[in-house]
Amino acid sequence: MREIHVSKIVETTKKLCIDANYYLTDDMRERLEEAKEKENFSTAKNILNIIIENADIAKDEQRPMCQDTGMAVVFIEMGQDVHVVGGSLEEAIHEGVRQGYTQGYLRKSVVNDPIERINTQDNTPAVIYYNIVEGNDFSITVAPKGFGSENMSQLKMLKPADGIEGVKEFVLKAVKEAGPNPCPPIVVGIGIGGTFDKAAFLAKKALLRSTNERNKNSFYEGLEKELLGEINELGIGPQGFGGKTTALSVNIETYATHIAGLPVAVNINCHATRHVKAHI
Amino acid sequence: MSKKINMPLTKDKVKDLKAGDNVLITGTIYTARDAAHKRLVELAEAGKKLPFNIEDQVIYYAGPAPSKEGQPIGSVGPTTSYRMDPYAPILLEKGLRGMIGKGKRDEKVIETIKKVGAVYFAAIGGAAALMAKCVKSAEVIAYEDLGAEAIRKLYVEDLPVIVVIDKDGNNYYEVGQSEYLKTLR
């Protein structure tokens, strides 16, 4: 049995919250650079330049790329042979988020209750997902999620008869309705199958995947590419002012589903798509 | 090229602004977002005095990240504007001349912009570190309890924004996208 002390979890979570908000991931930078080269519409090119310049400033000055440093979504992958010692695992994660957001000068954007709405002042609680796997590895992924894009996300329980065409239509409708609101160019996370909640989870999980990686199933890999092409033909463009770069990547995750259902969830992320992972 | 504007934003200055114009704003502007708008509108509807005179002023829909020592402000980019749609017409009727945010507005906001002769600007969403550099000073002037959502008085220099909806109701989200789609033909 491998033992991991909660202090290590606090420390790691704290660092991940800060790093995710200060540093644009390499793959996102590559996508933005590629998009800039391809754009010949001047407004779109200018905006992509500004977005890249902004990421440079954030990195050089150690400040968040976006003021909406998000609600912290934390994914724990824990080997079944790991024993967490020294306190509560859940409290350690919240404490890491608390320290990261306070010491990293990140915005506190969480309210205690959806109706009462009192700011908790330390960005806790985080949204936490646990996945227990074989072995003794322990990893933490922090994905701060801004709500400009979160609010533009949609879920629909399609009929099996709607099939692949129904899925495509729904994804395009969600992106079109979102328009300029989620800070395009966006990353589109799509969850297909499972149950109502599983589809939403898969869509979120899809956003954790590097934009350099495609779905391993060739059918869904094809669908990712096809949807990216169709989304970029909508003409929404960077910030919604027109252009060929509406999305930088479409990431699909799927799961088995029920004979009567075809759940589809579309989780939209902005050009500051943030996620960092660390192994302990 | 960019047009330069000095605050306050009078009705005359608004006349020169057309959808799609790049504008650099210099002077005093105010931040306010969801919770602050709710309070401002409650005061306005009760006929009470607002915490600042909004006549010919510009409200920036933004809630900054905290500032580090020596910085006037943390990263500060625009938040999505539609959430302020229920409140904006009342403030426009009271003399508010401009709004900075990002994303679409509803019909009622657009109609009121045309009626009173105002303007809706977009700042680049997510370019918050860059925009913080345009802010030379910042001071909380109301609702400190709201934290990031408090009303801040900012002095900005050459804050880059784009005119989305001008006083005639032209909408650059529509114009820009159709201009781009025309280049494909």
Set down the secondary structure blueprint.
The complex is a heterodimer of chains A (280) and B (185).
Chain A: E1 2-5, H1 6-22, H2 26-38, H3 42-61, E2 71-79, E3 82-85, H4 89-103, E4 127-133, E5 138-145, H5 147-150, E6 154-158, H6 163-178, E7 186-194, H7 196-206, H8 218-232, E8 247-257, E9 262-269, E10 276-279
Chain B: E1 3-6, H1 11-15, E2 22-31, H2 34-45, E3 58-60, H3 88-93, E4 98-101, H4 107-116, E5 119-122, H5 128-132, E6 135-142, E7 151-165, H6 172-183
Parallel strand pairs in B: 1-2, 2-3, 3-4, 4-5
Antiparallel strand pairs in B: 2-7, 5-7, 6-7
Question: What would the keywords be for this entry?
Answer:
heterodimer; A: about 280 residues; alpha/beta; 2 domains; 4-stranded mixed β-sheet; 8 helices; 10 strands; B: about 180 residues; fumarase; 5-stranded mixed β-barrel; 6 helices; 7 strands; about 25% helix; about 25% strand
Explain this structure to me?
The complex is a heterodimer of chains A (280) and B (185). Chain A has 8 helices and 10 strands. Chain A has 280 residues and is an alpha/beta fold. Chain A has 2 domains: 2-20 and 65-145, no CATH class; 148-275, no CATH class. The longest helix of chain A is centred in the first third of the chain and has 20 residues, at 42-61. The mean pLDDT of chain A is 96. Chain B has one domain: fumarase (Alpha-Beta Barrel), CATH 3.20.130. Helices cover 27% and strands 26% of the residues of chain B. Chain B is built from 6 helices and 7 strands. Chain B has helices at residues 11-15, 34-45, 88-93, 107-116, 128-132, 172-183; strands spanning 3-6, 22-31, 58-60, 98-101, 119-122, 135-142, 151-165. Chain B has a 5-stranded mixed barrel with strand order 2-3-4-5-7. Chain B is globular. Chains A and B meet through helix 3 of A and helix 5 and helix 6 of B.
Terminal-residue CA separation of chain B? 26 Å
Summed up, the domain count of chain B is 1
The percent range for helix content of chain A is: 25-40%
Q: Helical segment tally of chain B? A: 6
